[in-house]
Design brief:
The structure holds 2 protein chains of 2 kinds. Chain A has 16 helices and no strands. The chains are: A mainly alpha, B mainly alpha. The structure holds copper (II) ion. Copper (II) ion (CU) binds next to helix 8 of chain A.
């Protein structure tokens, strides 16, 4: 039907595929470009992590001198946070949100393209510093005065400029997503029928709009300090060094929810589909997501307990409080699986792996919320362990689940399930082998961000274990790349709805046509496709058969 | 895009390209309001820096180099009055185009642009005078805060003036009407935001100090 209705002029503009991708404003192509570039940054950040772990495998200096080591962990953190997890989740949001709400594209397609193309430019700015006198070396938090002109070279300026640009991309992307969700929902899709992934992306976008500009103000002030003789963070000139920490963490704590909430959303799509049950407690889940968004702005100083400049009881209590909605979600997920008809696909395995790993990371966080414990653990490997449990065991596992779950929709092809399970086992074992020993290292006092340690303090074996684990993670990543490479050369066998799923993105072809839908099922719940297939909807229109697509 | 609408089933009331919305706010205007929200947070970061530093100094504020006094220049008061009233002018222009009066829109926007440029000229003069008195971006925390906050605001005024210029040039070719003037709404909202930020800056930096 589509082919007959197409204008006769269609196809009159022969354009190369490269040109088409470079100039596209299609949210699906932009989403795929986000995801692809984020995976490239995952490899870059991962190689830096392996370099760090190689140096730390044994006492003494074997691989990286202290100078390069500092650059490596700074750029590893910066890359993973700002160029892997954020663009990756933005990519999935870009691809999936318009489909899940039954829209033809984002609200502002050209701004969408701009948001994406800023990412490689900002990355170029950031990474060029390696060849121009050394990258930033003050940690991804770039605390003053370490990051001031007196102690940090030009790499710090590249870092500031790169993150400022990256932030512009995030803000524009968030505005676009919110306008899309608020204005382009299909008829019948009320706010309380939105798929959970859309809800989590919505709250994430609000957090981005309110948190990233505050970081931007800090970046600007530090840039002025470094280059134009400003006095913001320089106590000698009358400024306040702790001010940087306030500004950074006012952004930084909401940022951790920016990095994890969409992963929560992904898990909440995957678990119900592979448990053959609706998500347990949809409304409680939405409420928990929103309250995380609100509380997320009231806990930032738990990163600053030891400065002596913050009111400990307040920030300790709010931090304990914010673990409650996350705990609610844990029960949502477990109750969803309870007595479900479980199918352990790779996506499901990563989702379950997420639950196990994130639980540990979350409990770590509750320990650090207690000020006396935090005083002992501040700046030790305990913190490194905690943040990697939530960011790797959480965000990255969520991203893996999303990759296996939505790859058939994006390409029409399955990733190989057997390779996927191999990858899962390697990565799961690797992650726990890498990050669990760091708990013990932290408790026994190993500081974070050190390049070397004495052979007689007993940290050797645990460090070696962590290094072995990190190589396993690297190997698991290679398995994933191989899987993608093979799958993309294979035939399109996925079909429209390979997982027997619930949401609208599965109600169109795989991959969807550029305009997304020929027609939409009637929407009467948060699972319109399930209703259509199993609800006996009577007059609901049929699914597109697949020949409606343009290609 | 034409293909999109062509293939829509006519028996189904779905407007895929535009969504059903809820009849409420226009999408582009919503985008602008969200952008303004993020801009507010940017300035909030700067204001937070100001007040946290100021709290540290107590009665020793404003912190300036030895022997330098900070006094308000009458020029700034005039500039403030101009900027505040320009908000009224741009709003008047918006009301005119809502009624379909293109000429009223163009006049109001031309006047607003002029007022914005005058504000910038006065601000530049104030900067020169302050520099003569020994207050600058470097050398004192008050100077750093003052020039960063007002400087970024000035940049936003300039951005607003450019936006108004675009609306004006489009308006002169008759591109807006009573039904179609979203860009006018968006630029007006932005200009009000720039104005309100200045009111807070004026109260904080010049009056409260
Ligand atoms: Cu935090």
């Amino acid at each position: 039907m589509a082919t007959t209705a197409l204008s006769p002029r269609a196809g009159a503009y022969p354009r190369s595929r490269v040109y088409e991708w470079l100039t596209t404003t299609d949210h699906k192509k932009i989403g795929i470009m986000y995801i692809t570039s984020a995976y490239i940054f995952f490899l870059i950040g991962g190689l830096m992590a392996l370099a760090i772990r190689t140096e730390l495998a044994a006492p003494g200096t074997q691989f990286l001198n202290p100078d390069i080591f500092n650059q490596a962990f700074t750029m590893h953190g910066t890359t993973m946070v700002f160029f892997f997890v954020m663009p990756m989740l933005a990519g999935f949001a870009n691809y999936i949100v318009p489909l899940q709400i039954g829209a033809a594209d984002m609200a502002f397609p050209r701004i969408n393209a701009l948001s994406f193309w800023i990412i490689p430019v900002s990355a170029l700015l950031l990474f060029s510093s390696f060849g121009l006198g050394g990258a930033a070396a003050g940690g991804w938090t770039s605390y003053t005065p370490l990051s001031e002109a007196k102690y940090a070279g030009i790499g710090q300026d590249f870092w500031l400029a790169g993150l400022l640009l990256n932030g512009v991309s995030s803000i524009l992307g968030a505005i676009n997503i919110l306008a899309t969700i608020f204005k382009l929902r299909a008829p019948g899709l009320t706010m309380l029928r939105l798929p959970i992934f859309v809800w989590t992306v919505l709250v994430t976008s609000v957090l981005l709009i309110f948190a990233v500009p505050v970081l931007a103000s800090g970046l600007v002030m530090l840039f002025i300090d470094r280059n134009y003789g400003g006095a913001f963070f320089d106590p000698a000139a009358g400024g306040d060094t702790v001010l940087w920490q306030h500004v950074f963490w006012f952004f930084g704590h909401p940022e951790v929810y920016i990095l994890i909430l969409p992963a929560f959303g992904i898990i909440s799509e995957v678990l119900p589909v592979f448990s053959r049950k609706p998500l347990f407690g949809y409304k409680a889940f939405v409420l928990a997501t929103v309250s995380i968004g609100v509380l997320g702005f009231g806990v930032w100083a738990h990163h600053m307990f030891t400065t002596g400049a913050v009111f400990l009881p307040f920030f300790s209590i709010t931090t304990f409080l914010i673990s409650v909605p996350t705990g609610v979600k844990m029960f949502n997920w477990i109750a969803t699986m309870w007595r479900g008809k479980l199918r352990f696909t790779t996506a499901m395995l990563f989702a379950v792996g997420f639950l196990a790993s994130f639980l540990i990371g979350g409990l770590d966080g509750a320990f650090s919320a207690s000020t006396p414990i935090d005083f002992a653990l501040q700046d030790t490997y305990w913190i490194v362990s905690h943040l990697h449990y939530v960011l790797f065991g959480g965000s990255a596992f969520g991203i893996m689940a999303a990759t296996y779950y939505w790859f058939p929709k994006m390409t029409g092809r399955f990733l190989d399930e057997r390779l996927g399970k191999v990858q899962f086992v390697i990565m799961f074992v690797g992650a726990h082998l890498t990050f669990f020993p760091m708990h013990l290292l932290g408790i026994s006092g190993m500081p974070r961000r050190i390049q070397d340690y004495a052979p007689n303090v007993g940290w050797q074996d645990l460090n070696l274990l962590a290094t072995i684990g990190s190589y396993l993670i690297g190997f698991g990543t290679l398995v994933l790349l191989w899987n993608m490479f093979v799958a993309l050369r294979g035939p399109r066998t996925a079909g429209d709805d390979p997982w027997d799923a619930n949401t609208l993105e599965w109600a169109t072809t795989s991959p969807p046509p550029s305009y997304n839908f020929d027609r939409l099922p009637e929407i009467r719940s948060e699972r319109p496709l399930f209703d259509l297939k199993h609800g006996g909807a009577g007059h609901a229109p049929a699914l597109p058969s697949g020949e409606g697509s343009q290609r | 895009m034409t293909a999109t609408t062509d293939v829509l089933p006519t028996d189904h009331p779905v407007e895929l390209a535009h969504g059903h919305g809820d009849g409420g706010i226009n999408t582009a205007l919503l985008g602008m309001l969200l952008f303004i929200a993020s801009e507010i947070m940017f300035f909030a970061g700067l204001f937070a820096a100001y007040f946290s530093v100021r709290a540290k100094y107590g009665s020793h504020w404003p912190a300036l180099p030895e022997g330098v006094e900070f006094a308000i220049n009458p020029l700034v008061i005039i500039a403030t009055l101009i900027l505040v009233s320009s908000s009224g002018v741009i709003q008047w222009g918006l009301w005119r185009i809502r009624k379909g009066d293109r000429r009223g829109l163009n006049r109001a926007f031309a006047l607003t642009m002029l007022m914005g440029l005058t504000f910038l000229a006065f601000q530049a003069t104030d900067y020169v005078l302050l520099a003569d008195e020994g207050i600058s971006l470097n050398g004192s925390i008050f100077g750093s805060l003052f020039f960063t906050m007002t400087g970024f605001h000035g940049a936003h005024v300039l951005g607003g003036v450019i936006g108004i210029g675009i609306i004006l040039s489009r308006g002169m070719t008759g591109q807006f009407s009573a039904r179609n003037h979203v860009a006018v709404e968006a630029v007006s909202a932005y200009w009000h935001f720039v104005d309100v930020v200045w009111i807070f800056l004026f109260l904080t930096l010049y009056i409260l100090r």
